[in-house]
Write a structure and sequence with these properties.
With 368 residues, the protein is α/β, with parallel strands linked by helices. The protein has a single domain, classed as TIM Barrel, CATH 3.20.20. The protein has an eight-stranded parallel beta barrel with strand order 1-2-3-4-5-6-7-8, surrounded by five helices. Helix 1 packs antiparallel against helix 12 and helix 7 packs parallel to helix 8. The longest helix has 18 residues. It starts with a helix and ends in a 7-residue tail after the last strand. The relative contact order is 0.17.
C-alpha cells in the first residue's frame, strides 16, 4: 500500500467530528502514554488541547532532552538556481513573476561554499527552482561534487525526482532529502498550483517514498502553514511521517513546519496560523515522534525561534539567504523565494544557543 492509498482512506475522515469527542481525560491520557497513537495525536492537536498547552510543552521538552540532550544542529540553505516552470500562486519563484533569474556557475558555487565553510557549518541544504531544463540532475551532481569538498552532509530540496535520479545523487554525495507537499488537501492543491509539473499531486506525494527506496539517509517532510486548514494539514503530515517511519525504519524521518511569509507576488495566507498554533504543532510532533529531527527555519522571527527550541526543535538554520548567490553576488531586490525574519549570522546563533545552555552542533556524523 502506498501513502496515496492511505491518504485516500482518510480523505473523508471527519476530523472536526473527532475533535468534538475529545475530553480532558483523553488529553491527559495521551500525555501519559509511552507509545501514543493516532487517537492520541488527534486529542493533543485538538482545539480543546490548547487549554493544556503548558502540559504538552513540558512533555515535549522532557522528550527532547531525553533524545537530543541540550543540543541543536545548525545548517544553512544554498540556493543554486531560481528558474522555475511552475505557477504556484504563493511562491516568489513563480514563473510569471518578473524577477532576475540566474543559475550559479560551478565557480560561483565554490565561492559560496567557501564562505559558508568559513563559518564552521558542516551541514548544507541545496535548493533550486523547479526547472529540469535550467537545473538538470547533471548540474546538481556537478554542484554536489564541488560541495562535498567542504561539507560532510548535503541535503537537497529540488523538484521531485525518479528513484534512479535519487540514486545518482546519493552516489554523488547527497544524504538528505527535503520535500514538502505544501498542502495535502488535493482540491486546494489544484487551485494553488496553476500550471507546470508541480500540478501532478500524486508524483510529488510519492517523492519521499522514492527517496527512501533509493537509500536516502534522512528525509524531511512538511506543509506550508497558511495554505490549508492547519489541523487537517498537520493530521495528513502526521499520517505521512508515520507511514514512512513504519515502512522504512532505517531512514531518519524529519518534520518541518514552515509558515507562509511575504514574497514577491503579494499572496496572503488563506488560513493564518498563530504563534500558539505553531507551538502546539511542534510540541505534539515531538511527543509522537520523540527521535525525529524537527526543523525551524529563518522564516520565523528571532525571539520566537528561541522560544520554540525547548519544545522540540532540534535543527535550525543560520546565516540564511533565499537569494541565488546571496552571499557573493549580492542580494538582488525581489529575487528571493520568500522573506526571512531571522538575519543573524552563524556566530550570533551559536552564541545565542550557548547563552541558553544549548550546545550548537556543527557535525553529528561522518560519511562512510
Amino acid at each position: 500500500m502506498s501513502f496515496y492509498e492511505v491518504y485516500l482512506q482518510y480523505r473523508d475522515f471527519n476530523l472536526d467530528a473527532a475533535f468534538t469527542k475529545v475530553i480532558p481525560h483523553l488529553i491527559q491520557s495521551a500525555l501519559e502514554k509511552n507509545n501514543p497513537g493516532i487517537n492520541d495525536f488527534i486529542a493533543l492537536i485538538s482545539p480543546q488541547a490548547e487549554e493544556f498547552l503548558e502540559d504538552i510543552a513540558f512533555k515535549a521538552n522532557e522528550l527532547t532532552k531525553h533524545s537530543f540532550g541540550k543540543t541543536v544542529q545548525l545548517y544553512t540553505p544554498l540556493y543554486l538556481s531560481n528558474y522555475c516552470d511552475n505557477s504556484c500562486v504563493y511562491c516568489g519563484f513563480n514563473l510569471h513573476n518578473k524577477i532576475q533569474r540566474r543559475r550559479l556557475t560551478l565557480d560561483e558555487v565554490e565561492r559560496e561554499a567557501k564562505i559558508i565553510y568559513s563559518s564552521g557549518l558542516k551541514h548544507i541544504l541545496i535548493l533550486t527552482g523547479e526547472s529540469r531544463k535550467e537545473s538538470p540532475v547533471d548540474y546538481i551532481e556537478d554542484c554536489v561534487e564541488v560541495l562535498k569538498k567542504y561539507f560532510i552532509s548535503i541535503s537537497i530540496e529540488v523538484y521531485p525526482l525518479t528513484e534512479e535520479e535519487y540514486c545518482r545523487l546519493i552516489n554523488s554525495g547527497v544524504d538528505g532529502l527535503v520535500i514538502y507537499q505544501e498542502v495535502y488537501d488535493k482540491a486546494l492543491y489544484a487551485k494553488l498550483h496553476l500550471s507546470g509539473p508541480k500540478k501532478d499531486y500524486r508524483y510529488r506525494l510519492d517523492a519521499p517514498e522514492r527517496g527512501a527506496k533509493s537509500g536516502m539517509r534522512n528525509i524531511s517532510l512538511g506543509v506550508l502553514l497558511g495554505l490549508g486548514e492547519w489541523r487537517k494539514e498537520i493530521f495528513s503530515l502526521f499520517l505521512h511521517a508515520k507511514y514512512l517511519q513504519e515502512r522504512f525504519p532505517e531512514v531518519d524521518i524529519g518534520i518541518a513546519v514552515p509558515r507562509l511569509q511575504p514574497q514577491f507576488g503579494g499572496f496572503n495566507p488563506l488560513n493564518p496560523v498563530s504563534d500558539q498554533n505553531i507551538a502546539q504543532i511542534i510540541s505534539v510532533f515531538r511527543i509522537l515522534f520523540p527521535r525525529a529531527a524537527i526543523t525551524l527555519s529563518t522564516r520565523e522571527n528571532p525571539s520566537f525561534r528561541e522560544d520554540l527550541i525547548p519544545l522540540g526543535v532540534s535543527r535550525i538554520s543560520a546565516g540564511s539567504s533565499t537569494v541565488v548567490g546571496g552571499r557573493t553576488l549580492g542580494e538582488i531586490d525581489k529575487a528571493s523565494q520568500f522573506q526571512i525574519q531571522d538575519h543573524r549570522n552563524v556566530d550570533q546563533i551559536k552564541e545565542m544557543l550557548k547563552e541558553k545552555g544549548y550546545q550548537p552542533v556543527f557535525k553529528d556524523w561522518l560519511p562512510i
